[in-house]
Amino acid sequence: MMSRHHLAASIGLDDLDRRIINVLQEGFPLVTSPFAAVAAKIGIPESELIARLQRLAETGVVTRFGPFLDAAAMGGAFCLCALSAPADRFEEIAGIVNGFPQVAHNYEREHALNMWFVLATESPEEIDSTALRIEQATGLAVLRFPKLEEFFIGFRVAA
């Protein structure tokens, strides 16, 4: 198994890249110039921060950079869903499912239920109507696994 530092070196991360990743996991300031504020905290020019973030995204080190919004707190809903996509139609089905703006993310699993995705809707009622539209578009049953209890697990990755 490769150590964290060996892995970072193999993909070209330096100490500043690791500091940027760690600082951004602490939160992103809600100010007029958030990148300038983060850059100042780190002690680098804003342009360097933005260039490094672009490189981290282009190389796949950072795969998502954006807010996490609590749909339920805003009157909406989340629901984990799954379906069984035939192997020869998997990419086609994934394209159909991902074409729905309510699909927050989609994962392939090695299981009879091989496609799992999260629906994020503006209202709880929209979960069922969206799942039904996905069923109609794919011809496949969409199983719904609504949240019964919420747990908050702070997730940080030490870069």
Shape: elongated
Main β-sheet: number of strands, strand sense, barrel status?
4 strands, antiparallel
The total tally of domains equals 2
List the helices and strands in order. Answer: HHHHEHEEHE
**Whole-angstrom Rg:** 20 Å
Describe this structure in words.
It is a single chain. The chain has 159 residues and is of the alpha+beta class. It folds into two domains: 55 residues, Orthogonal Bundle (Arc Repressor Mutant, subunit A), CATH 1.10.10; 74 residues, Alpha-Beta Plaits, CATH 3.30.70.3460. It is built from six helices and four strands; from the N terminus they run ααααβαββαβ. The protein has a four-stranded antiparallel β-sheet. The chain is elongated and about 55 Å long. The N terminus is likely disordered.
Strand and helix layout:
Blueprint (H helix, E strand, L loop, with lengths): L3 H7 L4 H10 L9 H9 L3 H13 L18 E7 L6 H9 L4 E6 L6 E7 L3 H14 L4 E3 L14
List the defining traits of the structure above.
159 residues, alpha+beta, Arc Repressor Mutant, subunit A, Alpha-Beta Plaits, 2 domains, four-stranded antiparallel sheet, 6 helices, 4 strands, 39% helix, disordered N terminus
In short:
With 159 residues, the protein is of the alpha+beta class. The protein has helices at 4-10, 15-24, 34-42, 46-58, 90-98, 125-138, and strands at residues 77-83, 103-108, 115-121, 143-145.
